[in-house]
Write a structure and sequence with these properties.
The chain is 38% helix and 15% strand. By secondary structure, it is α/β, with parallel strands linked by helices.
Length: 372
């Protein structure tokens, strides 16, 4: 029997893991139990009760002892109806993260270049490096907007296979416009992977561009505007020929029937969620204006459901602000200061008006109490 405390036995097991993978850090998130949770860009509102009841009625009739459909036709058809994109060009998955993994696994191998504007969602770099690829990192501009010329230049210089663009970008909130996306596509030879997880809150919707640009891939999630982070659902739109290749990296039965039924119903009834999305975007703008008025903070514009801001006060550090929000007020935001270019920065997503008021009152108190 192997002694798990024996370092030699552990090393014998780990030597079969690729060294390039062992040198990487995992995607992790420290668990907290706050009173007000504003750290993961979730919707502060649940799916409406009437919509839940309709979903639950469908689930109750489904035998749980049987596998879900091999092809999630109901979900795929709902996506096709909503986007007017052919079902042959649609893949659905257990969250858009799974589709990021699938796209990069079929395009990236040892030495393959992937252009990634940074700071951005760290999963892109992690999946690129796990597959043996090389990241060509392009820093955002000082105002955290995308440097389109530099992105194009890096793709040409490295003969990049993929350019990953998160727009609106997480964690900064900046978004690319239509002309900028066209330029990046048309002036490079790369596959353009557009992660549009937050586009319902602002920014350019790139789906209409798919018809004329077969190197474009658009990803969407149900975890934000669709209020379904707990069920994990996402979809990909691409040229049918490209979708067929990405499909090869997708695991069978990756969509359970709970998620398929719920995602299809929510998508078909998305107009019922539209007022919530509109309110969240409005609250984001209200938080932005309020934070701008607090001395010692620099707030960046955002087209997503969150804001990133830098703590520039000589008397309060970003760490102190984060810790006191949690310890004294039970409010959890996200410390993003370890990202490139985001030193002293925190990120907060828009919650309910009451939650946002509590956050703003707490920040005002902490930031101004030592200045009187």
């Amino acid at each position: 029997m192997i002694d798990p405390t024996d370092a030699r036995d552990v090393d014998a097991a780990l030597r079969h893991v690729k060294p390039s993978v062992r040198s990487l850090g995992a995607y992790t998130l420290k668990p907290y139990e706050p009173r007000i949770k504003l750290n993961q860009n979730e919707s502060p509102y649940d799916v409406p009760r009437a919509l839940k009841d309709r979903i639950q009625a469908q689930l109750a009739e489904r035998p749980w002892n049987r596998y879900p459909p091999f092809v999630a036709s109901n979900f795929i058809q709902a996506v096709s109806e909503a986007t007017r994109w052919p079902s042959t060009g649609i893949l659905v998955a257990n969250g858009s993260n799974e589709l990021i993994q699938a796209v990069l696994s079929v395009t990236v191998g040892p030495g393959v270049s992937v252009v990634i504007p940074e700071p951005t969602f760290t999963l892109y770099r992690l999946m690129t490096e796990v597959n043996g690829g090389t990241v060509a990192s392009v820093p955002l501009k000082d105002d955290l907007s995308f440097d389109v010329d530099a992105i194009i230049g890096a793709a040409r210089e490295t003969d990049a296979a993929v350019i990953v663009l998160c727009t609106p970008n997480n964690p900064t909130g900046g978004a690319l416009g239509e002309e900028e996306i066209r330029r990046i596509h048309d002036e490079t030879d790369a596959l353009i992977l557009l992660d549009q997880a937050y586009v319902e809150f602002g920014g350019f919707d790139a789906i209409p561009m798919l018809d004329e640009r077969p190197r474009l891939v658009v990803l969407r999630t149900f975890s934000k505007a669709m209020a379904m982070a707990g069920l994990r659902a996402g979809y990909m739109l691409a040229h049918p020929s490209l979708a067929a290749e990405v499909h090869k990296a997708k695991l069978p039965y990756n969509i359970n029937f709970f998620t398929e039924v719920a995602a299809a119903e929510v998508l078909r009834c998305r107009s019922e969620l539209a007022p919530m999305v509109h309110e969240i975007a409005g609250e984001r703008d209200r938080i932005h204006e309020a934070l701008r008025a607090i001395p010692g903070l620099h707030v960046y514009p955002s087209a997503a459901n969150f804001l990133v801001f830098r703590v520039e006060s000589p008397s309060v550090t970003h760490t102190e602000l984060f810790d006191r929000l949690l310890a004294e007020y039970g409010i959890l935001v996200r410390d993003v200061s370890k990202y490139p270019m985001l030193d002293r920065c925190l990120r907060v997503n828009a919650g309910t008006p009451t939650e946002n008021d509590a956050f703003l009152d707490a920040v005002r108190t902490i930031m101004t109490e030592d200045q009187g």
